[in-house]
Amino acid sequence: TAQKNIEDNLKNTYEKFSTIYWQIKSIQRKYNQPKISKKFREELSKLVELLDYNYITLEVAEKYISRFQRFLQDNKESILKEDYLTISVLLQQFMRSSFGITGFLQYYEDKGRKLLFSYPVLIKDDFGKYVADLYIGMSTESIDKTLSMVERQVQVGALIAIIVAVVIVIFLSTNISKGARIITSAMKELSKGNLNIRANFSSNDEIGFIAYNFNIMVEQIAEKEKMRDIMNKVVSEEIAKELLSKGIELGGETRFITMLFSDIRGFTSMSENMDPRDLISILNEYMTEMVEIVKKYKGVVDKFVGDEIMVVYGAPISLGQQEDALLAVATAYEMLRKIEELHIRWQQEGKPLLTPGIGINSGNVVAGNMGSKDRLSYTVIGDAVNTAARLCGSAPGKTCIMSRNTYMLVKDFVVVEEKEPIQVKGKSKPLEIYSLVSVKQEGFQKIEEILSKKST
Q1: Is the separation of the CB atoms in 335 and 439 below 8 Å?
Q2: What's the CA gap between 229 and 207, in Å, rounded?
Q3: With bands split at pLDDT 50, 70 and 90, how would you rate the model's confidence at 399?
Q4: Using alpha carbons only, how large is the chain's radius of gyration in Å?
């Protein structure tokens, strides 16, 4: 009947234009952003403004919408595909719904309310006869309120998201910077040689992983330094470095070296009459002083045999044949002077006087790791070593004697007293020997120059 026909038309018309307007309005708002083409924003705004005219004829609407459709086609690459399709469909619906019946669209205000769409509906009676046009006005208030509410919700959501993000960033940056400061401080301490330092920081991120591995690294370095320290106490520092750099392998090489032996005179009879603890105490005091002198002149303590000290110059490192020999002689000279000082102190303390004799010889030897695969030691062997030991055995207390081989290397830097040749075990001919008296001034200058020279 007519009443139902009107109600259906009203309902359908309201639904169509509510959808069309809301979608156009939404697209317009989206393209009001600065990044969108200015021309497209202007054209889209004009499309929405078209709805604000009080009276729109089919001729006006069709002319403008055709022009806008051409603009869309020419600029479709600059517009989102989904928006391009939506606008095209909306324009078709707008024309079909607005002008498909009577051909015009109106807009007006009623009692202060904005009625955005006032478009005609064909009214027919029960026999299908046209009786009137009905214009329906739709207020934009509810739509504007909905859009405003959505905008506020989006703004509030965005604000909350920003605040949460800022809090997370502050937390993470604080945690990371704290860990970085702790690790940096620990690294500075490590560079100073502090092997007890640890990065006391724990977390499940990358900084925590770095701190954990830093601590493992320091522990490994400390363990290696501990082993190095133990090795330096068991063997000389130079031998330890040689073993660490070249590896521990059996074998040797021929090298020209200068050998120094120092042996305490009368030590066997002295040890029989002393308490072992007192003997060890004074022997350690003596050995400590002697070894410090050896280290000063870059000598290598090969081994201790009871009260005997065996020192090598030229293996595993060498400063030159003459240089090695002169450093050995300088060591002997300072040892004898130190013994004079120790005698004065020991005499005041009521201790026995340890008096060494020193022998020096130069020549070719075999230097390297000797022994077995499970137990070995770095040492030197050869006739030159045996000869130095024989000279030491022939030297009186507080005296250093050297062979001709050594003397010829250092004769320009020392004062000696030539002695009668001596016959030693293992030699068919007597050995020419020289007793060290002093080191010349030129010798001390040469020694200072040698000590500043890099080893080879």
Answers
A1: no
A2: 32
A3: very high
A4: 53
Q: Which residues contact 207 (CB under 8 A, 6 or more apart)?
A: 175, 176, 179, 180, 183, 201
Its pTM stands at 0.51
Residue in this structure with the two tokens 């005041």, named with its chain if needed: 348
Top-confidence range, 24-38, 180-194, 311-325: 311-325
Assigned token pair, 72: 């869309």
Which residue shows structure tokens 């003459």? 322
**Under 8 Å between Cβ of 453 and 427:** no
Q: Which residues pair with 378 in a beta bridge?
A: 369
Tens-place pLDDT, residues 101-160? 444 444 445 555 555 544 455 555 566 555 555 555 555 666 667 777 888 888 888 888
- CA distance between the termini of the chain: 119
Beta strand 113-124 with 130-139: parallel, antiparallel or unpaired?
antiparallel
Q: What is the pLDDT of residues 255-285, one digit of tens each?
A: 999 999 999 998 878 877 788 888 888 888 9
Q: What would the mean pLDDT of 204-230 be, rounded to a whole number?
A: 75
pLDDT, greater one: 20 or 83: 83
- The residue among 46, 9, 39 whose CA lies nearest residue 24 is 46
Summarised one tens digit per residue, pLDDT across range 306-342 is 889 999 999 888 889 999 999 999 999 999 999 999 9
Nearest-angstrom CA–CA distance, 353 and 355: 6
